[in-house]
Structure formats: C-alpha cells, structure tokens
Amino acid sequence: MPTAHKVLSAILRVFEFCMSAVNLGILAKFFRLLHDTNSYEDPRWTYALAMAAISLSFSFCLIPPLKYSFYCFPLDFAMFVMWIVSFALLQDVSDLAYLALAGGEESVIGIMNVKG
Fold first, then answer.
1. What span, in angstroms and rounded, lies between the C-alpha atoms of 56 and 23?
2. Which letter does DSSP use for residue 4 in this model?
3. Which of 1, 40, 55, 63 is spaced 20 to 30 Å from 47 by Cα?
4. Which residues neighbour 64 within 8 Å (Cβ) at sequence distance 6 or greater?
5. What distance in Å separates the CA atoms of residue 100 and residue 83, rounded to the nearest whole number?
6. How far is CA 72 from CA 23, 25, 61, 112, in A?
7. d(C-alpha 29, C-alpha 64), whole Å
C-alpha cells in the first residue's frame, strides 16, 4: 500500500505541475497583451499570476515521493483554497471578455468604470 500511495502522489503532483504551468502560461500571455496595449492590470489578475507561480514551484519541489511529503497536506489544502479563490476572482474577467467580443471596447470601458 505505501508504494501505491507514493506512485499516486507523484502522478498527482506531475498533474498539478502541468496544470499550474498551463495557467501560468495563459496568464503570462494575457499580461503581455495588457502590457502591449497599455491597459489596466487588475490586482485580481496579479493574484492569479502569483498563485500560478507559487503553485508551480510548490509542486515541482514535492514531485519526488519523499518519506515525509505526506506532512505537506495542510499546505496542499491551503493551495487548493487559494486556487478556488483565484478562479472565483477571475470570473469577472471572463464576463468582461465576453462583453468585449459582443459590444466592442466601449462597453468594456463602461463596465470597468462601473466595477472599479
């Protein structure tokens, strides 16, 4: 049983690493586009980018199935909660992107002025 646990833990850590790398890449490209257009960078997006970078380094350090890696469970749970908060904060970003596609730049500027 301990061997199966270590293998499963390593597989899940690799999956976590891949998913955080994908999120980091998408957010980095989004920040690059914001920088190129001299647009406003919302602190929620900065939080999501930092969360992806922290998660990437955290999962990279814990990929090897070490003897005491189980004791990092509270940190795993904290990272899970932080990811949920990150995705909840980014919900408005998807709404703004939809409105930008539907109504043009003027509608997004109007919504940005109303929301913050």
1. 10
2. H
3. 63
4. 10
5. 26
6. 22, 26, 11, 40
7. 30
Question: Considering Cα of 19, then 81, then 79, then 92, what sign does the dihedral take?
Answer: positive
pLDDT in tens, 96-115: 655 555 555 554 455 455 44
Measured between alpha carbons, how far is 53 from 37 in angstroms, rounded to an integer? 24
At CA 113, angle to CA 87 and CA 85, rounded to 5? 15
Tokens representing 113 are 């002025």
Which among 3, 1, 12 is positioned nearest to 72, based on CA atoms?
12
pTM: 0.72
In the DSSP assignment, the letter for residue 62 is T
